[in-house]
């Protein structure tokens, strides 16, 4: 039968016929995009999909990702009814074991987290886990989590079912069609070249799985992922498996919104994970699949060292890597401890398949710097679990122009320029793979590839005992251990919050409140927007009025069409045709690209990332003016230099741009100077501050200071899912300033009222610290989840922020927050807790 001819053009071309590409095509068809072409270099599933172990777990570390996983399960349940292809979904439930006290704490935290989603996760005993999975030994097991709506799926059958649904919606699928080039012109993708001809397209999606980086290079785009060797084995049938099914006790758990039906698939063993032993299991007929994450990882295709890009053989389709039993030995030995029958198995096959991993173990999704060129890759060995949700959110992103959820932690643009380095990318991915099952404690710091980006004062920080953290490749001071002696060890938080903590944090906090503290904020992202159209451009994106006089600063947000908060930063007017934006270290790429996507045609507006040009030091506290005034000819009085204004001047011998702003709620300034002057400026400030009791502080103190003052963190307290009115920054919105992005949605929001409100909570137990995502209960019912939390060293309270229903958000409302399985009493507080009249910042 002759192959169908490729069309000359399509609205969208999807490259890759694995589970990601077919899910995207399926969801695009559901949204009415019929003119979609999917191109597969070989046969469907022939990349990484065909050798996936197929486990599907839903509860993840973020709101958006968990919602995506839950959508996957909902989709897999109904696919069989839509298609003649059975997707092979088995809703057998999933067990996660705790073989250490630390892991048991993690399960308690996950159980609380699950409550906010309505996921029916239960904490069960080792004996109850064994009743569900009789093959397991309970030796060393302290407890387990049981989620009956988890399961496993056949990767090939799922892909065929999705492809069938895509075809029914009008999508055309062409196998044995290799893409050899991607046409880019004037900053936008224009189509693809293949061995069978060219296809013009408005949108091209790289859903190439382990080939995604190779495909992206055809468009001049770097996608930081590497195919890693991932192994699991399949056993021959075991009598023990058949006996286990017969002896299994089915735990009747009803999933919410299931119509009262028990969805547990009877006659199947649940999936089983023991992260402390690095292993997972699922049934495979009458045998078992067993795999894990080795402590010694191996990239699949990096010949000649890690300084080169991966080189996947052109004919590597539907193939596996050579078995590596030596590297798998630790996993096999661990597997026998948890499932003794593994000592008596006959192995059918050791599967060694390449799986694409990213530097942070999150997906790579979204539009790249090339307009219209999207990525749908980086599935990190949990692509089967996430494929349904990934296809849905990316299809919405393509069709609507923006995602329907907060996806920044999965956005391809989150990766900085350092990821152009293959060696750096591999170092970060290697660390990610080898710590896949490790507990992610709050404020845990990764080590691979460090130090890389450093402040000009970095050597000074090291000499003075800095404890460093890392963000976006930057070395940043968390605290100075030399300040610990002035802190109070008795304030160490209970449990996880007490890890990666120091009494120095409190000492540095109090210095900012009582005297003066100096902070290195050079990692802050700094953007300049210039041109004759700069003012009107910013006014159409910002919810606040930014076209003020030269020298004035505005705190503002940029919104999406739903009225959700996409950016949150300060804008300073530097000249009539030039504005400066200062935003969070990790958000520079996001905010720059958000603005770039909205640029008008022509050259009337230009955006520059000037982060590396400027060092930035914050000096705050009641004595900040006393330290600075002798160093500068600029009058620092309120009349000459009011709050939320800037001046170009000198401090010591250094030319500086001084901004009178604060993120800690105290009198003070941020001082910006050209990078080469940075060390000299820091030393001048430090020496001038000695008579005034100056203390050098780190980012952990900044966070506790901002909590007391109620300042928001984008990506946690406020996100693209909430409006400014809901997030407590509605005071920025100027509806009367003219039209701006999201204004119509805000008008509708005002009419209907807020769906929820971000509220400050104070907890009765000062040693119980909320870390984020804990459930909040009011009158015995789950009412919301914590966004951020910490300890306020001035107000001497444990503080948390949470979204609550408007009718239950008044100050004084009694609440309970579940922290590691214990409900801690608290109440809704009036905010800000510290200096409610704002007198300190204007002092």
Molecular structure report:
There is one protein chain. The chain has 843 residues and is an alpha+beta fold. It is 24% helix and 27% strand. The chain has 19 helices and 37 strands. The strands form seven sheets. Strands 1, 2, 8, 9, 10, 11, 17 and 18 form an eight-stranded mixed sheet that branches. A hairpin with a 5-residue loop joins strand 17 and strand 18. Helix 1 crosses helix 9 and helix 12 crosses helix 17. The longest helix is centred in the first third of the chain and has 20 residues, at 63-82. It is globular and about 80 Å long. It starts with 8 loop residues before the first strand and ends in a 14-residue tail after the last strand.
Tell me the layout of helices and strands.
Blueprint: E1 9-15, H1 19-30, E2 36-39, E3 55-56, H2 63-82, E4 94-98, H3 101-115, E5 122-124, H4 126-132, E6 143-147, E7 151-152, H5 155-168, E8 172-174, E9 179-185, E10 188-194, E11 197-206, H6 212-217, E12 226-235, H7 239-247, E13 271-274, E14 279-284, E15 287-292, H8 325-338, E16 347-357, E17 364-367, E18 373-377, H9 383-400, H10 422-434, H11 458-463, E19 466-471, E20 474-480, H12 504-514, E21 517-520, E22 525-530, H13 534-541, E23 553-559, E24 565-575, E25 578-583, H14 588-597, E26 606-609, E27 614-620, H15 624-628, E28 646-651, E29 654-659, E30 668-674, H16 678-689, E31 695-697, H17 699-709, H18 724-727, H19 743-752, E32 757-763, E33 775-778, E34 781-792, E35 797-804, E36 814-819, E37 822-829
